[in-house]
Design brief:
Elements: H1 14-36, H2 39-55, H3 64-88, H4 107-110, H5 115-121, H6 126-137, H7 142-149, H8 153-170, H9 178-194, H10 197-203, E1 204-213, E2 225-226, H11 228-245, E3 248-255, E4 258-265, E5 268-278, E6 281-288
Parallel strand pairs: 1-6
Antiparallel strand pairs: 1-2, 3-4, 4-5, 5-6
Helix pairs in contact: 1-2, 1-3, 2-3, 6-8, 7-8, 9-10, 9-11
């Protein structure tokens, strides 16, 4: 029996299962990460998907890719309630784990949606987010998504309309040129590290928002800071002091697909900073200093 090109005696069964899962692992990682925003939770979901795949009578699976994506998506949705309860007790602003690209990263992993879009996706319902990610990011048609989620195509189209309207209302379609983004990031960091309020006021948009995810570390804002003046003064008061207290090195890398900055101290990642731009102005600043979220930046 060879519905998939894989037979029961192919390479002992288990070796074939491992190879097929490995061929799709990076796709599964990217899909689930965009649903959850957490690397640890994504790895847990992938482990669940692997166990389901290893126990499956695989010759009956006509399309392993579709089967694995469906299993992973539904495993991610099953974890959403527990994840949301955990985030409700998180101290300070919560940001997704930054994905810092390395030389050996796969295209699927480094093309994760931007930090700014992930923050907007957090405001969707789990089903709306799943439909948006599968359709808008990965290009799955609505009927295929309906089969994955055990919903009617009409229900999926309605979820898609609501999610798209919600996202577009909060995140206009603007993509900065990578060179412009890198230059803006360098200029912003020079001003922030130097406590240059005047330049910060020039760079920041009037409605800029600053998120500082420090995992509850003392001395950090407990909620996002909004408004050009407040953000500039917060940065000028806190960033230069931290730069003096620690010997910082800056490495410009790609984070969630965007040119960003990774700050190191004593060779270890200290912070990841991602900017969101609208033209020449910074509309969002996403800073992650929670050490539990930084090992992947090494």
């Amino acid at each position: 029996m060879e519905a998939t090109g894989i037979t029961d005696h192919d390479t002992g069964g288990h070796d074939t299962a491992t190879r097929v899962f490995a061929d799709h692992r990076e796709l599964l990682f990217s899909v689930v990460y965009n649903l959850l925003g957490s690397v640890a939770d994504t790895e847990d979901v992938l482990q669940d998907a692997w166990l389901a795949w290893a126990a499956r009578d695989r010759p009956e699976v006509a399309n392993p890719r579709a089967y694995l994506v469906r299993v992973a998506v539904n495993a991610a949705l099953a974890r959403q309630a527990a994840i949301r309860r955990r985030r409700e007790t998180y101290i300070g602003p919560w940001l997704p784990d930054p994905l810092v690209a390395g030389a050996d990263e796969s295209a699927e992993r480094t093309e994760a949606v931007s930090m700014a879009l992930l923050v907007v996706l957090e405001t969707l319902s789990p089903l709306e987010r799943a439909v948006f990610v599968l359709h808008e990011v990965f290009g799955y048609p609505h009927p295929e998504i309906a089969a994955m989620l055990d919903r009617s195509p009409a229900a999926v189209r309605q979820l898609a309309r609501r999610a798209r309207a919600h996202v577009h209302a909060r995140r206009p379609r603007y993509t900065a040129d990578p060179r412009v983004r890198r230059q803006a990031t360098e200029r912003f960091l020079r001003a922030a590290l130097g406590g240059d309020i005047g330049t910060l006021l020039e760079i920041l948009a009037p409605d800029v928002t600053l998120w500082m995810d420090a995992g509850g570390a003392p001395g950090n804002p407990l909620r996002p800071i909004r408004g050009r003046d407040r953000v500039a003064r917060t940065l000028a008061a806190t960033v230069p002091r931290r730069a003096r207290e620690t010997d910082l090195d800056i490495d410009y890398r790609t984070v969630n697909g965007d040119p960003s900055a990774v700050l190191f101290t004593d060779g270890a990642p200290f912070a990841v900073m991602v900017l969101d731009l609208d033209g020449d102005h910074v509309t969002g600043i996403y800073t992650v200093t929670n050490p539990d979220k930084l090992p992947a930046a090494e």
